[in-house]
Amino acid sequence: MSVIFFPPPIQQINSEIIRSAGADVYVLRLDLMHPWVNGNKWFKLKYNLLEAKEKYFTTLLTFGGAYSNHIYATAAAGNLFGFRTIGVIRGEKTLPLNPTLSFAVQQGMQLVYMNREMYRQRNTPALEEYLQQRFGEVFIIPEGGSNLNGVRGCMEIIGDAMAFDYICVACGTATTLTGIVLSLHEGQRAIAFPVLKNGSFLAQEIESLLTNYLASDLPTPSNSPASWELVCDYHFGGYAKVNDELLLFSQQFREEYGIPLDYVYTAKMFYGVMDLLKQGFFSKGDSLLLVHTGGLQGNVGIEERLQRVSKI
């Protein structure tokens, strides 16, 4: 199979809420770039894969939960680009495998399960040394692709021609937001919607990523980092938490615009943007670009989990 990535289209959306706010709202459809390796996951993987190739590694090792979009995308990318892949999965093995892990295995990924206490040490030199001793020379990609290579890739999400006033994105590790902030031009502003409860702690992570990237030898932008802010009110209870209101919003959004949203990230951000438009947060004439970061595969697992709960 040839590796073809399609340029992500930009789709305008409109509604009574948007018209009343006097704004122009568009969606950057990163979910349509590739069937398996799409969204921000591709951008976070891109330069990690290139470094692994340049350093002659043949095996990638990374981390994630049982429903991880990153595990899913890394398994597919490894298969597409000729790497062996190992996924270190948080928690105990559960059979049958859920759709995410089943897909990873189909793509050739070796799954290794790690108890939660040990998993919390995943970013320490001691655990890295243990993994290198156990599996040999492996190229380690952190959970979610959250390193400076990931930031570098995310700097390519917003092109020079995307002259929007606001770029809106869901926020988990802050890697995507950091790359976007580094790529914007003067006058543009980024708004991130943390999908975790009490997400204000991410501000420190963003500042750290910005500082470390600008101090690195990686390509840096000609502009100063753009202004950004966190809007922490739309997590719906925390990471991977959903309720009927969010599910109904996602269903109605898909019916109205033909755009499916993933429950963990984009649905929360899109809901937040629509709510802010109703509140008059944006000025008349503002143009907004909402970044659809993919992750739709995770909906299957969440819907199965919700069905099991509803039967109890």
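That was protein one. Protein two is written in the same sequence-then-structure order:
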Amino acid sequence: MTKPADIGSKRLISLAPNAWVQWVTGNSQVRASQLLDAEFQWISRESDVIVKASSPEHNEFLILNELQLRYDQNMPQRMRNYVALAEEKYNLSAYPVLINILPPPATVTIENCYDSEFMGLKARQDYRVINLWEVEAELVLGQPLPPLFPFVPILKGGGSESKLRSAVQALRADQTLNQLEPLLAFFASFVLEIPLIQQIMRWDMTVLRESPWYQEILQEGLAQGIEQGIQQGIEQGIEQGIEQGIEQGIQQERRGSLERILKLRFSEIPVEISVRIQALTLEQLEELMATALTVNSLDEFTQHLPN
């Protein structure tokens, strides 16, 4: 049973599975029959959703949905592995789709296949790529595509007050969708001013924290930070040093999370702001996490930094 605060990929797709599979395949004849387990023997993929589907032309097959906050350059191999594991587990052909939510830096090229050669042997895996910033907001609201309603502000042509109000109205018109409002507010904060968003809709941080995309921003780098801290403690060779090292690692993770939030909202961070963040205490960092999500500009955020 889905938790009330669950606003992850599986929850979104389950809202309208037929509309979803027809959209990602571009085939109006496809029908969804079941959302399957994406856990494999050695790997559990929380951001992946497997849908068993069928069509008159292809009979039963799998649609592999990989939703990523941002594309990373390891994705082609990940998609190749994902297809192989899913086809082996369910003994069905797979149609893999990568959905990128936010655009990567301009220097990153988004690939739509895995292609390699070793000792004369070739391996290739194609997959469809859908970049949400290239999807028309009007299409999503008009079709409609309920799983994409929370992303309307970051869709093409969706970064306006009128489109946000339309998305809010669509969510509130259906009781099964109104729990997605905090996620809509979160993505609206990338393109609209926070006071305007708060005027139009509710901003529920308790619910938002359940989102895997919010967690990805906050938790990315945690393991690395703690590992570095432990290593520093071991090098000191005493128990107190290890404890201090762990604390330093957590503090470093918070600095990284704060900078990731600022980069996601305002692109690049000036060096002087990054330097000031490095000098903050753990308590100050945690207070500024919420500030980073609510200010309208980097200049406004700078005003909250301790002198």
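The chain is about 50% helix and 15% strand. Keep this in mind for the problem set.
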